[in-house]
Amino acid sequence: MPFAAAKNPDHEEIKKEKTMALSGIEIYKLLPQTNCGDCGVPTCLAFAMKLAAGQTELAKCPHVSEESKQKLDSASAPPILPVTIGKFKTGGETVLFRHEKTFVNPTGIAVLVTDKMADGDVDKLLTKFKELSFERVGLTLRADLIAVKSESGDAGAFEKLVGKAKAAAGNGGLILMGDSAEVLGAGLKAAADQKPLLYAATKNNADAVAALAKEHKCPVAVKGENIDEVIELTQKLTGMGLKEIVIDTGSRKLRNVYEDQVILRRAAIKKGFRPLGFPTITFPCEMTEDFMEETLIASVFIAKYGGIVVLSDLEGHSLFPLLVQRMNIFTDPQRPMATEQGIYPINNPDDNSPVLVTTNFSLTYFIVSGEIEGSRIPVWLMVMDTEGLSVLTAWAAGKFAADAIGLFVKKSDITGKIKHRSLVIPGYAASISGELEEELPDWKITIGPREAAHIPAFLKQFKAS
Hints:
Layout: H1 3-6, H2 12-18, H3 24-30, H4 44-52, H5 66-76, E1 83-85, E2 88-90, E3 108-114, H6 119-131, E4 133-136, E5 139-142, E6 145-149, H7 155-169, E7 173-177, H8 181-191, E8 197-201, H9 206-216, E9 220-223, H10 227-239, E10 245-248, H11 254-271, E11 281-282, H12 291-303, E12 308-311, H13 316-329, E13 342-346, E14 355-359, H14 362-375, E15 379-384, H15 391-396, H16 402-411, E16 422-425, H17 433-439, E17 444-447, H18 455-461
Parallel strand pairs: 3-6, 3-12, 6-7, 7-8, 8-9, 9-10, 11-12, 14-15, 16-17
Antiparallel strand pairs: 1-2, 4-5, 13-15
Helix pairs in contact: 3-4, 7-8, 8-9, 12-13, 14-18, 16-17
């Protein structure tokens, strides 16, 4: 298929590929038709429709026959096939835009080390990979993979470097990068049990690298000079029985790589074109020598379809924004991020420390707890389950009402932690203070500030009683 035709969703080859997908009714005919509900869907027909739309997995049906499974596997797989690298997962996507449903597996962030780097430089990068992590809204954010590249062609040196990277990776994944199957094989001696991504199968070495990936049951990346060559390579590898494939279209200019990401995603999702239905790997580290520009380029591919982005370095001031951007994009837009309900001790509170109550919207918790920590005043923060809604929204929806807060306080064990009976509510919920006093007649209800930024000043003046 010509490269230009890849941009055209109506190209005959893409049309032909799409006709291979089964309709919901055709899938239904291959299901057990017991309507048992074990898949989480009430009927087999409804399950078949979800399979046809790429909204569920065939594995959720425990009763499908092996014969039917073989026929349905490819038809029911998501448009972008999932790939597992160690414990890291990429791919599995079913939509072009997150508001249509949700994105599934967050873009992997990798750091590159090579066998031509000085040992000290390698050690610094591996230490950054191990130590750079951030807490936000109850989640730990960090980089995911280490890309180990053979630049010298020395198999022994590569094997040694892979062993060092494996020791530093912990739960992170590994990407082994080399031009030959011999070098990649040497790396596998040190890390085959980690199921690393082998990068890359090209038109010159596809047979040997694919055989290596098949032998060790590892995922493999293909690298083409353009999308046409990528299609040839993925078809060749899938013909050899390989399913876990990652794509590098070979472009190293921002505009070209961006266009490639969009073309691949649209062809796979809109037209069901299987030869391009794989996650991608991008290399901002090879697209500029300016690290801040590299960070900006990485942010583009986190937003637009990059399965993995490989960076030349990890710095807190650049990594943190990328991690937060990724978290925001790969959060299900139909489900608010929520913190677990409970009592959170901040700054080592004692039985005289004030008690504040708020909702379990993660951003609310993160901001409020951050301001309390910054004040250095010991506080008991009670986080109430409001189905992930913010204070004002939860109050308006009746989920942060006086009766609900009163019941939450009574059922909690806060009274066993404090001597006083004083509760501070958010300023935006001031209207419920009277009702809350009726629900908690033994408690003194105090209205706190509306804005979290005013909490430190409020706490310095407030005394629980």
